[in-house]
Amino acid sequence: RLQWAPISVDAEAFESAAGRPAVVDSAERLRERVRPARKLMLGVDRLDYTKGILERFRAIDRMLTLRPEAAGTFDMVQVVVPSRHQVQEYRELKEKLDREVGRINGVHARTGWIPLHYQFRALSRDELVAWYLAARVALVTPLRDGMNLVAPEFVASRTDERGALVL
Question: Residues near 71 by Cβ (< 8 Å), separated by ≥ 6?
């Protein structure tokens, strides 16, 4: 038996959160951490090998290797939400991500700047919306995905109709 069951985000809840003064203030504080000349890029993904997080990190590494003048022009924040961390393969993936962030930051960091800011934690909706508001670019680049809600969450949060969504 086949059943069609569309699932999406509660766009009104994200729009509402984006208008709350506390969330807007939080987004401004996040933006202040980034110098005006830098673009804040954001990735939010569940810990899963299908999300392409490791490949995203390696793409940043490759870009900085090929275009060293890009160093210091952006900050990439990657939030990885813990998932299935009791499974050995997922623990190994987290270890690979940890090592790759360290390697890339070690190779490409400059005084006062590192390319990758990596957080392994869950976010509340208000924290998530604050990051969406602070970011100039959201990256949703899974290797394969059945349903990714980050893209519509980002769009619903951007009531200012600014920012770029890279799929």
Answer: 64, 108, 110, 113, 115
Identify which of 24, 5, 102 has the alpha carbon closest to the alpha carbon of residue 57.
Answer: 102
Calculate the alpha carbon distances from 70 to 39, 41, 109, 113 in Å: 11, 13, 11, 12
Burial class of residue 116 (count of CB atoms within 10 Å of its CB; 0-12, 13-18, 19+)? buried
Distance (Å, rounded) from C-alpha 135 to C-alpha 40? 5
Long-range contact list for 146-153, CB < 8 A, 24+ apart? 147/7, 149/8, 149/9, 150/44, 150/45, 152/8, 152/9, 152/11, 153/9, 153/14, 153/128
Q: pLDDT, tens digit, for every residue of 88-107?
A: 999 999 999 999 999 999 99
- 131: three-class secondary structure by DSSP: helix
Q: Which single residue is written with the structure tokens 């619903």?
A: 156
Residues 57-75: pLDDT tens digits? 999 999 999 999 999 999 9
Please tell me the pTM assigned to this model: 0.89
